[in-house]
Structures are given as structure tokens and as C-alpha cells.
Amino acid sequence: DSDPVGFDSLDLNERRGRSTDAELDRRDGTRTSEALTPAAAARDEFQEELVIRPLHSGDIYASFQFRTLWDTDFLQEGQKVSHYRLFPKSLGQVLSKFSVRELHISFTQGFWRTMQWGQPFIPSPPGAELWVWFHDTVSDVDGNWKELTNVLSGIFCASLNFIDLTNTVQPSASFKPLGLGNATDHRFLRYATLPREIVCTENLTPWKKLLPCGSKAGLAVLLKSEKLFHSSFHSQAVHIRPVCQDEQCTSKAWELRQTLNVVFDLYTAGQGKKEWSLFKMFSRTLTEACPLATSSKVYVDITDNPELFELSPATPLLSQAVVLGDRRTYSVFDLTRAETFGQLRSLNLLLRWKGDGEMLRPLLHAERYVAGFGLQTGEIHTVIYNNHPYRAFPVLLMDSVPWYLQLYIHTLTVTSKSRDNKPSYIHYQPAKDRHRPHLLEMLIQLPPHSMTEVTVQFERALLKWTEYTPDPNHGFYVGSSVVSALVPSMVAMNTNFTQDQPLFSSFVPVKEESSYFVRVYTEPLLVNLPTPDFSMPYNVICLTCTVVAVGYGSFYNLLTRTFQVDEPSLPLAKRLANLIRRIRGVPLLT
Amino acid sequence: MAAPLTLLLIVAVTIRAVLFRSSLAELISARVEVVSPLNAWKRVVEGLALLDLGVSPYSGDVFHETPLMIYLFHFTVDYAEIVFIVSAYFVDCLSCFLKPLDRAKMAINSNYLKSDLLFNFPGCCELISWFITIIVCLCFCKFHFLCTCKYTDVRLCHQIADGITALALYLSIQTYNKDVFRKQKYALESDRYSADCLELLRSPKEMFYIPLKVAMFYLLNPFTILSCVAKSTCGLNNAIIALFIFCTLKGSALLSGILLALATYQSIYPLTLFAPALLFFLQRLYIPVNLRRSSFWFFTLQYAFMYVGSLVVITGLSFFLLGSWDFIPSVYGFIFSVPDLTPNIGLFWYFFAEMFEHFRLFFSCVFQINVFFYTIPLSIKLKEHPVFLIFMQIAIISIFKSYPTVGDVALYMAFLPAWSHLYRFLRNIFLVSCVLLACSALFPVLWHLWIYAGSANSNFYYAITLLFNFGQILLVADYFYAYLRREHHLTHGLYLKKKDGTEATLVLK
């Protein structure tokens, strides 16, 4: 029993040594980078973090973030990066081959219920979502995009190869780069969603393999698929973007963030008792940090009235962070410190609720549904709520609708408080049949404490029989619409860029103190289309051709023949008699 | 004749105005039988909305009207009041000139046949005077019903189009009847008809009401009314074709060429009407159809030049209005390749929805060639009867075109009274009328069962479209048969005898 302990402490010491090295390096980073060759100067670091937030509905929200920072530039001319340490080589090669500037991919099973759960740290729509900013030196963006989706499809074992021109759009305003550089030319942006994508173990395994420690050590040991997929919501994502190396922002570093969000419904599973533990959630406990990580922390959100629940083991470490317009308090468990694990050499957080929290009202919330009946026409309703009591703010609504729902933009209405609310900006790109989806983006001002309804009518197309999915009467999915907004913040946001910030609060860059960025995804839609009878292509071809042939035949008949008096032919006996008469030279019978 | 026609116009306009104001209008404008992706008013409005948004209407796949059409509507909607005031002013001015015009008409009528072929003045006079009548009717309507909708004046546009079509058809058939009567007289005088076919000859008395009946068949046909109430642009295309027929029959080659170019520009298929128009002009100018004669080639080239020239001018004009050639694939490519499989009354939609992918190109070629193909044999067979050829061509187009609507059917059905003398030779008119009536009634029923109730599937609706087209084919073939048979009887006698003196039956051999 003493052996693992000894190994553990050794490991810890070693890791401390490395982290101080890294700090030293960072302190005189400019000098080292001058002195050494670029390849040798490429330092990388890895951080891992788990945030646990009890939700008001009684569910538990666990959010993992793994960040790998690498001070190198794949896209720099003449530099070939071949030495990979923490950064996954498979992704690095993809980035440099396709000149990707920024890549965001998410796989989500289930729908994030904003009304009950509040805002997630990193939102994602149901199914798969992929958006990529290419470097502006790329000439054939569509070609790169096509290849990239196929490669990613292989890396993540997902059906991303179904992304083609018919479901790719180029949003003009909704998806700005999150990393360095303010590229505004949306010709280099591609965005696609696959709302039908089912996320399961086969997507999780390749995702875990990208982590430096895999699922062997650190927080990733908790990621067991039998528990993760037995949840109300599961979302895993990879975000790659260039960031500043330091505060002066003299050079670029690449950041890879792997996030995994999961919501457990322990409330109903635990017979209504609000009680959870790491073991109950993940059927594992934590025993060590990933040896390669410079920081490894577990945060538990205890903002909502610490008297309401009881957390064990208790920790003296508290941290405050401003996240999503709210100042939150967290208990911090630093896994790099041996005392965190206590006597048992394992950390199993346990939390018991004593009372009920009140329902929360997220400031921004959106939902969507299809109205109308029958298979001919329909109407898409998107309802956006601004629950701020006195502030109006603008939101960007983006809708990407497949071509087989023909939108009629002249039927677009935007009403707030039963009054017409004309969008100040509309970007509409109509669909091309079998080539391009509709893209509708608009900037809508939401009045304070209001409900804004956006409706647009559509017509359902009848497709070719080979274009239907294997289960056509299940319906066709339409991806979520995306509401992006700068929501006025209750507290001053932290605009300073520091290394020590918890990861969950540093994903979206904050430009100003008074507002924070929120992206809300609505439900995807399931729309039925009229279907032909799949069993009778032969019959249809035959029947239609028959009718055409009837037309052709009757005209042909009338065109080529002439009217003649019908002379009935003689009976056989008479004809024979005539034959004999002809020989005899006697007049013929008639 | 003016009084009943005016009355007819007023009745037709009133019916349409009432329907426009009723709640049925919205229902009708969503019917797939009445509007197709090519001519739905909803799509025109969408195109206008896209223009307003600064997006090219052809960048999407919703709008398939021609550029001239969208700019016409853009103008009509935006400057509706101006258009209305101007047209009212136009009426006032013209009514002052009406009397002198009439006198001029009389003067020119005296040397009618010698008048210039290019600018046939009397025809224009007549049409203008009738145009005034329509506008007066509409003014009456406008003030009477006080419509306040945004697109009120577009409704006027559609009503005017229907009125013009009916008038043009009325005047065309009137002219045609005169022509027929004149030819019959010559034939009788030169003893070309057989002696016992007196009862086949046409009398002015029975021909007197035919133009009115034609106008009535067009204006009061439920198909036309539905098409007009749905604000389908099919009515406008019909008006262009009707005006083309009118100008052709009046003998104005230039106007005929221009209008034919316009009709072709609108929907490609009227291209096949070039042959009957040419045959008509040749016949009118007593130029025999003989490939070795230079006069034949001279006139053919002259007419073809007018036609192609105006087509080029119109297309060029659209290019300059739009600034790009985007409309070519979006309008004509759309007609030919049939990418939109929304159900309609035609044969294409289900056929291509169920088609095997590798045969698609082959069959779309076959089906499109099928529309154009009949022109050549029909022109040869009916070269002495260009007006009947026009009817046949319009009917074939409306049956076999890629996106047919009931408005197209209404146009050729309007001609049926003109062939009322063929009635005795029709073989299955009863069957055909029953089929067409039953299908018209079953279209909405089976559509409802498929799309709304979910208790039927697409095959039900498809079966009805098949039957409807079958009925139309039978109808047209029947009229063709009857026409040929009457011609046969006129030369060979009505009561044919066999060699043995018994009554003979006539067969096609």
C-alpha cells in the first residue's frame, strides 16, 4: 500500500519542478525565444478543470475543460512543425494542412434547457456543429472545407462527411472569430450543423484520445461512457483558436480547448433526494491530477446560499469569478496538492441539499416551433425572450433552413409587445435547390421585459424519391437557430486577461465591462415533407409513358393516315372462287 | 354585339371582384392546380421583396418570372396610383378621339386588303376602343368595391389581362369567321365542295354568336376565374398569346412577331406558334408553301427576322434591367430541367419524382422534345388551316408543358365554340366532358386526402392528373379527327356510298 503513495508524492514533486520551470520560462520568455530556435522555443502547457454546478431544477451540471496551450504557429510560412508534445498531432497536422485559423466542433446529445438550467459555459446545439475560419490565404475555401469535414469525420468517428454545400452557410455576423485577429470577411467562414447526428461512445473515445493523459489519469478518469450517456444532456466539443502568448500579445499561441458538458438528472434517479457525489455521477472518484497538467482543479459552485446545502469534504479555498454576467463563488479543490485527497487518497465530493432553490429567469432565452397543418405549407415561429427588467438590447438571429423548405421572405414578421419591430439589419441568402440552404440573419432590438416573435412562412417541396432519408415519414431536421447577443451585465465583467483566471470564465473574450456575450440555440425542428410512393417507380414510369404514348399514338394515327371508305374484305370462299375464276377468265365475284 | 360583350365583361369583372374580396381568394391562390412555381403570385411578391432587400431575385430558387415581368409589377405596385391616374386620363383622352378614329377606321376598311401588313391600323383601332371599355368597367369596379389592399392595383392588372384576352379572342374569332365565310363562298363559287355537303356549310346566322361565345368561354370559365383570382401570371401570358393571335389574324406581321417573341420570352413553349403564324401570313398573301420559291423564303426570313429580332431586343432589355444573365438558367433552365417537383396537373412532377437517376436526363429530353415535336407533322397536315393549327399547338403545349396550370387549359378551351360546327363528328365528347368534370372535382378532394388528412398517398392525386391529361388528349385528338373528317366530307361528299351502293363507313387507313 505504501508503494503507490511513494510514487504519488514523487510524481507530485516532479510536476512541481516542471511547473516552476514553466513559470521561469514565462517570466523571461522574450529572452528565451530570441536565444533559441523556434522549434525549441515552442513551449506548451496543459490545464484541466471541472466545474460542478447544482442547477435550480435539481439537476447537476458538470463541465470539464481541458486546455492545451502551445506557443507556436502552424501557419507561419516556411515553418514545419513536426515535434508534438502535448498538442495532439492529428489535429495539428489538420490545422496546418487546411490553413485553419479557428475551428469549433461540438457533438451534443440532448437539448440544453435554458429556462431551467440557465446559461451553459459553452453553448452548443443538438447534434453536431462545426464552424471554421480559414486563413485568408486560402484560395479554394469550399474545397478545403469539403476535405476538412471528411478528415474530421474520420478523427471523431462522426458523420461529418454529410456536411456538403446543401447545409453549409457563411454567416455574415453571427460567428465572429473568438481568437486573435478580427477577420470580418465571411468568405473564409463556413458553418454547418447536423441536427440529426447521434452522439455516443464512438465519438467520446477519439475525443478522449486527444487528451495528453488520455483517460488514464487526471479528471478524464471520470469520463466513463456508461455514465456520461445516461444523462439528460451531453455535449463534447473541441475549440481551437490562436490566442496571445502574454498580455503584451507580441506573439501567437495556439489554444486547444476540449470541453465536455453533462447534466445528470440525479433528482429523479435518487427518488427526489437532492444528493449527489462524484461517485454517484461518474462511478469513479478522483485520485490524482494528470501528471502533465500545470493546473488541475475542481470548482463547485456554492453561490446559491451556502446554507442550502452541505459540501464534504469542506475546503477552505474559495474563488470568485464573474461569469455570464454574474458573480459566483466557488469552492476550489486543487488536485495538484496532496492534502486535497485526504486520508483516503481519493476525492469523492459529496453534496446534500437542504432546501429548494427558486426558479431562475435567464435574461435571454429563445425557443422555436413549426406552426400550421398539412404537408403543403407551414410557418416557423421563433420566440425570443428578453427578461431584463429595464434594458433593451439587440440580438443577432441566425437561421439556416434547408432548401426543401422554401422560405418566403416577404412573409417575415417580427413583433414585440404586439407591435411591429422592424429588424435594423437583414442578411438573406435564398436557397438554391439541391445546392445551398437559406440563410437568414437579422439584428433585432429586444425591448425590455418582452417577448419577440419572428415568423416566416415556408412551402414544403416534394423531393425525388432517392433524396428522402431511409425513414422519410420521421421527418426532416432543421438545425437550431442561433441567437447571439451582448447581454447587459448585472456586475462589472472582468476585461483583464490573466493566466490565473478559471478556464470556464475565459472562453469568450470580454471586450467591455457592462455586457457579456451569450449565444442561445433553439430547438431543432422536425418537419414532415410530402412523400411519393417509394414502391412504384416502375409503375409511375409505365403509366405516365402510356398516357404520353396515347397522345402520341392518336396524333400519329391522324397525321399519317387518310380517310377511306371501309370496303369489307371478301370472305375466304369468295376469294378462293375468284382465284379460280381469274384462271378461267370469267368475271370475278364481288 | 357591343352591348352583350360589355355586359359579359361587367359580369366577369364583377365575379372576379367579388371573389377577390372573399376569403376564398387566399384558398384559391394556394391551390397547386391553379398556380405553379412559374406563375404563382406569392413568388412574384417574393421576388419583389428580394429586390427590395437588394438581393437578386434569381439568386434563389423561388422566383422564376422573367425580368420584364418583375419590373412591370415593381412599377405597378410602387406607382400604383400614378398608373391608375394615367390610365384614367388615357381613357378620357381616347374617348375624345374615339369618333375620329372610327371614321379613320371606316376609311381604311374600304381598302382593307391592300393595307400595310406591318402596321395594321384598323385592328389597333378596334382593340383600343375595346381597351377603353375594359378600363371603364374596371374604374366602375374600383370605385364600386373600394378595395384597399396593397396589391389592389395588381388585381386590376390581372382583370385587365383577362379582359384583353377575351377581347382579343373575340375579335380574332370575328375576323376568322369572316375569313372562313369568304373562303367558303369562293369555294362554293368555284364548285370545290361536293354537292351533298350543304348541311356542313356554315351560315352567318350560326356564326354570329361564336365570337361572343368564345369570349364567354374564356371569361366565365371557372378555370380562368380561379387563375385570375389566384393572381397567377398565367393570365398575362394568355393575354400575350391572345394578342398575338389577334395581330396575326389581323395581318400585322410586325406586331405578331413582337408578341410571339414576348410570349416565347415568357415561357419558351409558344415558340411552336411560329409555324402556324407563318402559314397564316403566307396564305393571306397568297404565297404558296413551296421551298423552291424565292417569295416564300423572302417572307419567311422577313417574319423570322422580326421574331428573332424582337426576341433579341427583349432579352437584351432584360439583361440591361437586371445587369446579369442570371435569369436564363433560372427561368428557362427551370422550365427545361424541371427541378421543382411540386404537384400540378401535368405529367412531369410525379414522373420525375419517381425517376431513376441515370434515366433522368434522357426522359427530360424526351418529354421536352415531345412538346415541340408535333409542330412539324401538324404544320404539314394542317398547312391550309393555320388557325386550327394554332388551337392544336396551344392545346398540346398546355397538356405537355412542364408546369401546366388550369389557366393554360382555359386558353385552348376558349377556342372550342369556334369549332362548334365539328360537333357532329366528335366521337367521345360525352366521355371526355365527364372525365374532365370529374377530375376537376376530384383534384381538391384527393389533394386534401393526401396532404391534409393523410388517409391517401401521392398515387391518388397522381392518378387524377393522369386521367385529366388523358381526357385532354382525347379531347384534342377528337377535335383534330373531327376537323379532318369534315374536310374530307367537304370534298368527298357527306353520304359516302360503297361500291355496291350501300352506306359506307369511313375509316382511317
Automatic annotation (TrEMBL), chain A:
Top-level taxon in the UniProt lineage: Eukaryota
A GO CC term attached to the entry: GPI-anchor transamidase complex
Start and end residues of each stretch annotated as Disordered: 1-33
Biological processes per GO annotation: attachment of GPI anchor to protein
Compositionally biased residues, Basic and acidic residues: 12-31
Pfam families recorded: Gpi16 (PF04113)
Protein name: GPI transamidase component PIG-T-like
Organism: Cyprinus carpio
TrEMBL record, chain B:
Topology within the bilayer: Multi-pass membrane protein
Signal peptide segment: 1-25
Pathway where this protein functions: Glycolipid biosynthesis; glycosylphosphatidylinositol-anchor biosynthesis
Keyword hit for Signal: yes
InterPro entries: PIG-U
Any one of the GO CC terms: GPI-anchor transamidase complex
Main subcellular location of this protein, as a coarse class: endoplasmic reticulum
Short name of any one Pfam family annotated for the protein: PIG-U
BP GO terms, sorted: attachment of GPI anchor to protein; GPI anchor biosynthetic process
Subcellular location: Endoplasmic reticulum membrane
Keyword set, alphabetical order: Endoplasmic reticulum, GPI-anchor biosynthesis, Membrane, Signal, Transmembrane, Transmembrane helix
Stretches that traverse the bilayer: 79-98, 119-145, 208-229, 241-262, 268-287, 299-325, 331-352, 359-376, 388-416, 428-453, 459-481
Tagged with keyword Endoplasmic reticulum: yes
Family indicated by similarity: Belongs to the PIGU family.
Protein's recorded name: Phosphatidylinositol glycan anchor biosynthesis, class U
